[in-house]
Prior knowledge:
By secondary structure, this protein is an alpha+beta fold. It is 22% helix and 31% strand.
Amino acid sequence: MAKKIIDIRGVSKSFGGKTVLKDINLFINQGEFLTLLGPSGCGKTTLLRMIAGFLQPDEGSILLDGKELGDTPPHLRPLNTVFQRYALFPHLDVYDNIAFGLKLKGVPEDEIEKRVRKVLKLVVMSDYEDRDVETLSGGQQQRIAIARAIVNQPKVLLLDEPLAALDLKMRKDMQIELKEMHRKLGITFIYVTHDQEEALTLSDTIVVMNEGRIQQIGTPIDIYNEPVNAFVADFIGESNILNGTMIRDRRVSFIGHDFDCVDEGFGENTPVDVVVRPEDIYFTTEAAKTQFTATGGYRYRQRTDDPGLRSLPRGEHRAAVHRPGRHPGHEKGAHDQRAGSHGFRRRQHRAAGRHLRVQHRRLFRGRQGARGDSVRCR
Length: 378
């Protein structure tokens, strides 16, 4: 059984009368890579700063290894933070930036040198110890910031949107490197981001936040496949949220057609919201596989090995909602109703080294102000 390392109990925080965190309850396991994911202003960075000790909660408590942190100052907590803007010392070279914390603690010089060289090797910067940090690229500076944090051998590494300032290619490369560092170090990572793909790629566990509250906690697959409410369904990936009616158990009606689904217990003729991901729909000319027909001109991928898009002539074409476990012999995609695009697109998210191919999504249950509960089609 996994051991809790951080336990957050009933934490709330306000600034100037505005509540930014409300009754947060969360525990984090030892060795876990946990991501706080949400839009700007949802409270994720505030929560991270309270764990680090830079802010104090108005209510509730934060425990580390079963002991309440209370007023323990940041430098006495076995945690280190990697900031979005790196916060490197411009007057120190790479070696001295990394060694700074160890020198403050009075670690012997030979031990400092041994540990600095070890972390430089870990972040693939072994030949840069004498370089001026201002001559480094953004990605290199971020590696030094991470090295400076992990050289202190913290129990928990806190990362506040550390890749936000990097270009796309560098960001993706650093995602792979961070995951590898986590595997090698074996310590707990708490990561803050608003980037869904980043969270799905890196995390063991994702905590989705909005307006100071936790919306859902789960693995990347759970969060993507089983969103608990409309916010999560819309925030993670691309979604078309449609009005529907639960006719009876395992049967739902929307867009003028009836579909089989896997949900039960909603009653009969109950209003529901249905989430359809773009990859849940495919077009085919084989009548036996279709559930309804559509009229118009569409583009489609003819084969999985054909990178080109081909156009179907205007007229009647058949479409079907993708059923779990059934894989047609051609590329799957969907008409994105939100964007108004008529293009096919195949979306794959990588989580912990695995591709997520989504069949159908459970929709939200009991959303405030919703038209009703939700169902999952098949």
